[in-house]
Amino acid sequence: MKPIKAIAIAIAALISFSACAPVGPKVVAEDSVGVQMFMWNWNSVAAECTDFLGPAGYDWVLVSPPEEHILGDQWWTHYQPTSYKLDSNLGTREEFANMVSTCKTAGVAIIADAVINHMAASDVNGWAGTEHTKYDYPGLYGETDFHHCDSASGGIEDWNSVDQVQQCELLGLSDLDTSKQSVRDKIIGYLKDLRSLGVAGFRVDAAKHIAAAELKKIVDAMPSDTSWIFEVIGTTPDPADYKAMGNTFSFNWMSQSTQMFNSFGSLNGAADPTALTLFEDSANLVTMVSNHDTERNGEALNYRDAPAFALANAFMLSVPYGVPMVYSGYAFSENDASPNLGADNKVLDASCSKFASPVDAVTDGLFVCQHRWNEIAGMVAWRHAVGNTAVLKQFDDGNVYAFSRGELGFIAFNNGDKKYEGSVKTTLQPGVYCDLISGGFKSANGKCKGDAITVDADQNAIVNVASKSVVAISAAAQVR
């Protein structure tokens, strides 16, 4: 069968799929918690969904791009597609499908990183053997399917020009002309293929480089329960045009997190509803402390700032603002380096057995497993326990900041360099509670694995918070 005919048949079948696909709630929602598992292979994600992510309460996982990519041992090769085959050094189509199914059984949805703005920047062959040139992908795209803008270099030179941002090449990557229905049809076919395997939604890479009106036609062609997260950095073009179609990432939240936890005394009132209104509107907003780009370019906290990174994630998970996404990656010294690769150049399986707490000294190439750190995993359980309750009874003492969430939870942060001991007014009922941070999200035979925290008859929590640490209790974690 010739490639063009095969693609046409696939697209027709996928259009049929969308017409009868069941429609349900979107998984990237205000009451959900996600995690980006950067460069984890499919078999490792599947195992982690069963062993940890599902039991810990994570609702969805953002996985790296699944399509065929150019050959190479750098992580960014995954952002240079050569075809829409589900075959990469993270796994095969069969392994991808098994991951989606296994995670669904564990109660965890898969969000796929969708690279649909562009193809490759060179003629390096694809992982699955696809031969191509920069503007010719046999059976898929030809030269007329790409933008060829009139800047001197062919790339983006004026970042204040919407036309250049959306029609010139980003980092030399061949820019797809999504104004063409034929181009959009192929993209839609690829995304529907992923949906047919059970993928719940997509992070659209470089979304602002696709005209919003053209991207909306792709979004509208997908099942209405598809979750979307658009990568839109800066103010050109207007992020509101993308937020109207789904979620966008809050790079502002990331910047504020870095400032708050890199300096003393800056948490005072940070969770106050009035303070939160000073940020952008939290509707359809995904918050994060870092991602794969920002942990490399110095704009965000990363695993090397282990205590601050852990506290910043705990704070993100503690406030009623946006949809939080935890970031979990691997150790690196060279920004371009992949995680450890096998002799076949496939990404090796992840192992998280050693990382239940913040670690800033990890061997390059090994996964850091930040999503398992007690300060983060314990807060996932805490967030689900407090729901959408309001921030109440705030307390501030220098570098110590605490607050309650309705009558369901209490949390205290110590961003200073000295231990804090004292009593703090809460809204919880008197009793003994299990600290979800020192013990993680689990209990042993129904007993608290963490420190016991007493709330006295006057609803004061008797707390002992170590330097650069946090304690969190909830009504669901009351032991007596």
Could you explain how this protein is built, in words?
The protein is of the alpha/beta class and 480 residues long. It has 2 domains: 3-383, Alpha-Beta Barrel (TIM Barrel); 389-477, Golgi alpha-mannosidase II (Immunoglobulin-like), CATH 2.60.40. It is 26% helix and 18% strand. It is built from 12 helices and 18 strands. The strands form 5 sheets. It has an 8-stranded parallel β-barrel with strand order 1-2-3-4-5-6-7-8, surrounded by 4 helices. A 4-stranded antiparallel β-sheet has the order 9-10-11-18, covered by helices on one side. A two-stranded antiparallel ribbon has the order 12-17. α2 links the parallel β1 and β2.
The CATH top-level class label of the largest domain? Alpha Beta
Kindly report the CATH topology of the largest domain: TIM Barrel
Helix proportion: 25-40%
CATH superfamily of the largest domain, by name, is: Glycosidases
Strand order across the largest sheet: 1-2-3-4-5-6-7-8
Strand proportion, as a percent range, falls in: 15-25%
Shape: globular
Radius of gyration: 23 Å
- Helix-strand string: HEHEHEHHEHEHEHHEHHEHEEEEEEEEEE
Total tally of structural domains:
2
Major β-sheet annotation: 8 strands, parallel, barrel
List keywords for this structure.
eight-stranded parallel barrel, four-stranded antiparallel beta sheet, Immunoglobulin-like, alpha/beta, TIM Barrel, globular, 480 residues, 2 domains
